[in-house]
Amino acid sequence: MCWDALDLWRQGLIMADLPRRIIKETQRLMQEPVPGISAVPDDANARYFHVIVTGPEDSPFEGGLFKLELFLPEDYPMSAPKVRFITKIYHPNIDRLGRICLDILKDKWSPALQIRTVLLSIQALLSAPNPDDPLANDVAELWKINEGEAIRNAKEWTRRYAMDN
Amino acid sequence: MSFLFNLLKGAFLRMLQLIWFGKRKISNSLSIYVKTNTGNTLSIDLDPKWDIRNLKEIVGPQLGISPEDIKIIFAGKELHNSTIIEECDLGQQSILHAIKLPPGKNRLNRKKDTKNLIEESIDEGSEANESGSKPLNETLIDLPLEDSDRHENHSEQEQQQARAHFYVYCSLPCKSVEAGKLRVRCATCGSGAVTVDRDPQCWPDVQQPRRITVHCENHDCQTLLSSLAQKDEGTPQVRYAQFYFKCANHVSLGEKDEAVPLYLIKPNLRNVPCLACTDTRDTVLVFPCEAGHVTCLDCFRDYCVARLRDRQFEFDDNHGYYTLPCPAGCQNSHISEVHHFRLLSPEQYEQYQRFGTEEYVLRAGGLLCPRPDCGMGIIPPDQTDEERSRSPDEDDCRRIQCIGGCGYVFCRRCLQGFHVGECDSQQPTTYSSTSAVSCLSGYAIDPLRASEAKWDEASKKTIQISTKPCPKCRTPTERDGGCMHMVCTRAGCSFQWCWVCQTEWTRDCMGSHWFG
Q: Is the Aminoacyl-tRNA synthetase keyword given for this protein (chain A) (predicted)?
């Protein structure tokens, strides 16, 4: 009981300074989750989300569960959330540290976008890799020269890193 | 004991009364001016509960006119006898116009009235001169931004809800964003004794000249108009309305007391949620994009502050405003009335103005005095080809003096104290008068200590260590995180370069060392 009360109190503290928009978005993500995407706020920091994206069907990432981290900076939604893959992934637009090349996370960000739309765009990026706008040069190179082998690599990485649990 | 209690209770109630009714008592008497078309001005104290007929009865004897022969004009409307004063949006020191009807016209009116006697008797009563209408603030509906977006005929209730609310920036004396009042005068003579031929229905009606015609009661106006027509054949023989705004927060300071309308701020009649915080607020800012994206005023401030901090305001190429587009990135959505940025705090607005000025100077090919706390904008005179050919070593054209500011003499290229020869590792030549004095006085100065004691040396070193110059415009640039892809934030430069290679950003940079 005592711990519950403390927990509630802590939760209250965490939520206290949170803009209503973040609270609303979090509630909606919980109540109406996007198919194939889960985003759960951290217990200690409501601006930090643990994200899991399932690999889209008919892509080399199918069957994989990819962990990401998402952080809402102080002036969100005026500036974009910071998102990074934690699970290793073989993708021309995602580098070895999991950083993502996506315009809406940089100069095309708009406060009209949301956590939900960002994660959907990332899922779409998995379905449609863009080797002409690369982040991982070697991956992009192979994707252009020998797509078959690149897709085999992507499947192999998915099996090895995104399916073990 | 009970006596004391009663006394205390009485005093307490009196105080409560003072607190609660103090305001009402003051507003119970409304001091206004009544101007006539014969050049008189009366100062009158009114009870806001009176109607226009009461007012005519007071004004009439003072002017020596029968009350039936007067019409009262306010804000472009002739006010109906039954109109209650407090419904007219009148403030203290407002000016009403009392016009003496020409006898002929009055008779005509009466004739008309008898014709419509049945209607009249149902409507108001039997008194003559029942012309006039509701005041402008009662009939005016919320103005859409676009001409095409006019309101359809509303039901009474909808019209009540959709009644126009205006917001203005009051530069004096309030210095803040306030509720505003729409007023109108004759565009030809400037007289307020006009009646509009129709209500404005959209913002262009209010903002653009020659959209709505008026009937002007000023006697001199006709002569003015005909003399203008004689001068210029093109001047039309019609009079147009000139709309303007007043601040509703302070007592009117006269006819010249105007305020800037902030037409993007609107009451949220359609209950549109804010684009950023998704709350539905009472007052919103509607961006001038096709979609009409909406933010609440708090989010608008946050948006401005975020963009200001990154110096990411833009110049509207059509008009040259230093402004922002719709946050959703819509085309042609720049805010063209920059007074909307008055929603920012005074400090933030000052920063906005300073950035705007600096960016303008830089865009115009000028530079800013590099001396700390100066920052004067300097636009060096363009050099003729002849001058350039005369000074091939370029020393002269690199030498810039901060005229009108601190007087500092500096090198145009490296923005350090002026020097002869190449920019790198040059000590500034002794231009300052203080160093000249120290040479003359004959003291022995430890050069080491003197070099440490220079006031801008430390920051110069820090800048040298922590920045790299933009390869295009040489602005010292600091990288405080993120990737190696740099975009120069200096106005008109926007060069994309690589922090590692210090050249233009390429695909190779992206592939091999985007993040270092």
A: no
